[in-house]
Amino acid sequence: MFDSFRAFFIGVFWLHLASYVGGLSVKFRRQPLFVAITLTGLFAIFKPYPSVSDSALYLGLLPLYRHVFPLMRYTFFTVSTLLYASLLGPAFYYLWVYAGSGNANFFYAITLVWSLGLSVIVADSIFAVLRDEFEAERPEMKGKLIRHV
What we know:
- The protein is built from 5 helices and no strands.
- The chain is mainly alpha-helical.
């Protein structure tokens, strides 16, 4: 039905991904490795045809910033979401393809849950690195709550 728009939608997806490069590069200009890791995570979330290898590459590179893990706020939610999607993904695929008792919506829903978990990891790691930079600039604020005015 929408085959004539396929190239347009794929182009829009890639344009959306390219829009993150400038903002992240300006904000984290002193940490280009973190920009590359974050872009890898964003590519894993928003690619038109994502695969497990995209997420594995991001999750494999993220421990390079292990020192900011204590500053992350939503680790339980993130780990729970990724475990939930990892365990139910194969089950939904089996129900859809082999058993015939499910439909594609089950599998699509679990990929959305996986993308939600990756989105929370990316956002939380960005927050943690920003907090780490803030605490490095202002050591007296280490461990204190910040109020935005």
